[in-house]
Amino acid sequence: MDMNTLVAAILGLVEGLTEFIPVSSTGHLLLLGHFLGFDSPGRTFEVVIQLGAVLAILTVYAAKLWQVASTMHTDPASARFVASVLLAFFPAAVIGVLAHDIIKTILFETPVLIATMLILGGLVLLVVDRIAPAPLHEDAMQLPFRKALSIGLIQCLAMIPGVSRSGATIVGARLMGVGKRASAEFSFFLSMPTMAGAFTYDLWKSRHILDFSALTDIAVGFLLAFLSAVLVVRWTLDFVSRHGFAIFGWWRIIVGTAALILLSLGF
């Protein structure tokens, strides 16, 4: 395995391990890529390995998704759940299209901003884990439309790299009285259209500059992102139900602080 493939394997593993927990997979990938000197023409690598994480969540929830899809025309609860997820997805779809170029060309190229947002997001997680109100909703499939839309609006903060899509949605849900497990699970459900939409739009916008010359590296990163994401999704719900989100807050603070120190030293 040459050095580029090794770095691709590390980045794929990190993508899968961090995509569905509130630590910002994008922030981790961009900072690691910066410090490891990894350059992906047209961001082809980052775009494609994200699909590995999308397929992982679809695989884990395949049975539930099929049940919802096959009953939504007869079961009001299934139809209502689909509507709540699409409603939550709508703000990100609109803002993502309007702000795509700014996000990709400016925010994604600012390591200091990413590290700072990791730290601030970690502090928010620690505070919310302590002050969140008693849960009013313990079923991710039965959230009121108003709260689903509010969570979707809060998710838009994650367009700033380092904020974390899952972190924003979980914090928003917890502050609105959604239980720990239900917050994480709704974040998983919302990730499906959000990530699939972002992947498709990124692919389309970058179609003229995509570079698939390093297919081995891309394949390795994709596979490791898929496998590690499957493990994380299966593990996360039980973990946060018992322990909450504080450990992720501390991790963000440590990683962000380390990154700022390295950047200040000229790395």
From TrEMBL:
A Pfam family the protein falls into: BacA
EC number annotated for this UniProt entry: 3.6.1.27
Molecular-function annotations in GO: undecaprenyl-diphosphatase activity
Record localization: Cell membrane
Record's bilayer topology term: Multi-pass membrane protein
Keywords, sorted A to Z: Antibiotic resistance, Cell membrane, Cell shape, Cell wall biogenesis/degradation, Hydrolase, Membrane, Peptidoglycan synthesis, Transmembrane, Transmembrane helix
Amino-acid biosynthesis as UniProt keyword: no
Catalysed transformations (reactions): di-trans,octa-cis-undecaprenyl diphosphate + H2O = di-trans,octa-cis-undecaprenyl phosphate + phosphate + H(+)
Origin: domain of life: Bacteria
Transmembrane segments: 44-66, 78-100, 106-128, 148-166, 186-204, 216-237, 243-265
Known function: Catalyzes the dephosphorylation of undecaprenyl diphosphate (UPP). Confers resistance to bacitracin.
Other remarks in the entry: Bacitracin is thought to be involved in the inhibition of peptidoglycan synthesis by sequestering undecaprenyl diphosphate, thereby reducing the pool of lipid carrier available.
Family per record: Belongs to the UppP family.
PANTHER family to which the protein is assigned, alphabetical: UNDECAPRENYL-DIPHOSPHATASE
Name under which the protein is recorded: Undecaprenyl-diphosphatase
Species the sequence originates in: Fuscovulum ytuae
Organism lineage string: Bacteria, Pseudomonadati, Pseudomonadota, Alphaproteobacteria, Rhodobacterales
